[in-house]
Amino acid sequence: xxxxxxxxxxxxxxxxxxxxxxxxxWCERCxxxxxxxxxxxxxxxxxxxxxxxxxxxxxxxxxxxxxxxxREMLTEMARERGIDLDSLDLAEAGLRERxxxxxxxxxxxSRAGEQYARMVNQWFDGESSKxxxxxxxxxxxxxxxxxxxxxKLEQVDDAISIIRWYQFQIAVKIMRGLMRxxxxxxxxxxxxxRDSEGIRQKDSDGSIKVALIGMDRSIAAWGRLKEEFxxxxxxxxxxxxxxxxxRRATEHEFPNARSFVRPGFDEAGxxxxx
Length: 274
What we know:
The protein has 274 residues and is mainly α. It is 62% helix and 2% strand. The protein folds into 2 domains: 3-81, no CATH class; 105-267.
């Protein structure tokens, strides 16, 4: 997509400003793709085979657009973190960034999020064959018109998809929320946004809210598997306990995250969306 086309697209009133900043990137299950500029841009690129041809001008035009967008994002992040991009003190800037990164990675919430991701892999490594066998047994027992049982199988498949989708994203969103400058406090407007009513909100709370939603949905999905496969209940329980403890600890660390109003998603009359 050319820069001119992107500018025109960005001015389209049907798009909700900033809606893509606080989503889970599961476009296939999102009710707001028609109102998302990022989704529209990606679709336009996918529908343009020339944009993926390295020998074509459209490819380099696309790369130029990504570069410009990245520069804007970098400028905003630098402003939030107090980094002077006009300074050539690269060593000091890098040191501050490394310290913040190390602080984030060593935080108990980050470690717990990464531990959960490992636990999920370990569970599927050990239980996937049993689940597949149970699936086969259930499908083999299906009469031609047992729609209730077929619906249960589809729900199990959905539960597994949900678990896998949020498996790593939970930790990533937690770490993004934790990447707060040491100077961030209740009066730090540089790290705040405003909702549709002009109420100040912290960007970190927005990221954490996405992580919390991922935890909520993952807990529900594990509950579904536990219900459908009682033989695996003992191995599922530690995952549920870990997620619940992580959820509570995250809410304690970020008490305002749940009330963060994400553009579009939390302004849709209570619709439970991405």
